[in-house]
């Protein structure tokens, strides 16, 4: 059996396989796509970017004013230049054109058709091959395996230590996440009613990948933005620190959980292998088994790996606790009312939501077809694996017969017809096994391609669903409400 997710320095062993065949991985591992979904480069330096919008506005000619008015206007302009406008930073970091959006959809459709056709051809050819070779195979018997001893007490000790530290880290992550959410809400509420349009732009920035399109909806929202008031830089800075610390906490938690998962798996395997006994005698393989032995880590490095993970987690928890205290003080110091005049503006989202819904329906159709093809390919792989298992018995019987016949005494040790037939039988079965292995590899590669296509379709489908959710729920929802006073300090 294979050990997935093991650490580089962990020490453990596993039962040696009792046949020449490689271990067959589970179907779950076949679903993994080895390549990331293709991401398109966003359009850049377009005339409709926000920076260009504000550069144009700042270049407008100022009419003739009195000296006092010029002084006041000069002061306002200096203050305006020093003020930080989130729209200048985050309104349009990356953009795609509608052309990019349609081309991406068409590319996904073509890829889906190609992968399904390839899988269908492979399935037909493989079924014919399996039918030709079926008469050469028989069912096999299970053989014995060797007992394995493992340091179960050490694993149990480190498991308890890891569980304790994971519980502490999860509590700290929950506490810091709650403080971060309060800080985010307080920061949003400082913008007041005039920030509703900017808030819509902010939510639409959460659109993913190809859906980050500079469409008509976004152009209308940008024109709505008139003023941005008193954004607190310290709050933003501490929010960034909280996000970074959460990432560090989760990274430490992930290392602990991965280490714990490895130890749980190792303990389960070692415990099962510890009770294995010989089930039969007289039939076994005689050479090549040593090549399947895994490499081992040293006991010192094995225990030090877990100890280092625990110490790192404790250090991150201490930093996180200190940051929470600082954020609490900051929230109490910046809880000021910042109400401004609210202008209600109607924005038409209907056309864009209709286009996104149509694209989502098309993706769902292709995804359903791809899932059906994946199911058929999985059934094919299972059949190939069963065919490989069925060939173990004939091979062992032939090899055992050859081995037993070597014990004939004196002149009886004759290279007769049965001997020649047994040699041919072994070679014939080995050739069959090799061909089935090759076909199994082809089927698994095809399944990987289908899974990759499925992942791309599902990713694009989630992008469309996310965009619809942002337009329908987030943007349209906040335009119907005003913020309340308690929310200025981060409480709902």
Automatic annotation (TrEMBL):
GO terms for cellular component: axoneme; microtubule cytoskeleton; nucleus; sperm flagellum. InterPro entries: Tektin-like (IPR048256), Tektins (IPR000435). It is found in: Cytoplasm, Cytoskeleton, Cilium axoneme. Belongs to the tektin family. Residues 119-186, 419-460 form a coiled coil. Its main location: cytoplasm. One of its GO terms (biological process) is cilium movement involved in cell motility. It holds the Pfam family Tektin. The keyword Transmembrane does not apply. It comes from Hucho hucho. Keywords: Cell projection, Cilium, Coiled coil, Cytoplasm, Flagellum. The keyword Iron-sulfur does not apply. This is Tektin.
